[in-house]
TrEMBL record:
Keywords for the protein's UniProt record, in alphabetical order: ATP-binding, Nucleotide-binding, Stress response
GO cellular component, one term: cytosol
Positions of region (Disordered): 101-158
Matches recorded under InterPro entries: HSP70_C_sf (IPR029048), Hsp_70_fam (IPR013126)
Residue spans of biased composition, Low complexity class: 132-144
Organism: Lasius niger (Black garden ant)
Family named by the database record: Belongs to the heat shock protein 70 family.
Record PANTHER family: HSC70CB, ISOFORM G, HSC70CB, ISOFORM G-RELATED
Listed name of the protein: Heat shock 70 kDa protein 4l-like protein
One function term, GO molecular function aspect: ATP-dependent protein folding chaperone
Amino acid sequence: SQGEPIKERRLEFEGRSHALEELGKALQLAKKGLNQIEASIGKDDKYSHLTEEEIKTVEKTVQEKWMWLEEKRMLLASLPRTQQPPVTVAQIRAEKLSLDSVVLPILNKPKPKVEPPKEEKPKDKPADEQKNNQNQNAQGNHSQPNQQQAEEEKMDVE
């Protein structure tokens, strides 16, 4: 029908500012993350495990998306409501998803866990035997009858 393009433009107009705002906020968060990374260079920080390549990927993606956003904002600012918009809400949301899919996994990449080196157990058998004897003594009379039974069983076999 003739009214469909008008309805579509109205829906696009109403949803566009929110979609642009969401993309802008996502870009600001990514930029803030980059600033934190730059501030933490040379320090032991939560971003110290990121490679230079990963950081450059984030920088490049943020810059590309920021330029895309500004270009579309300028086009939309001068656009009369009666014309078909050069960018749709779906396209803006797709750009945000694209940004998030590249930037968030890098910025939220967990720092690898550093396991402390395992301490070698002392191989002093006398110390281990002393611990065993102490444990048996701590158990009380229960260990003595077991020892006697074991000795008696050995005697019966012989």
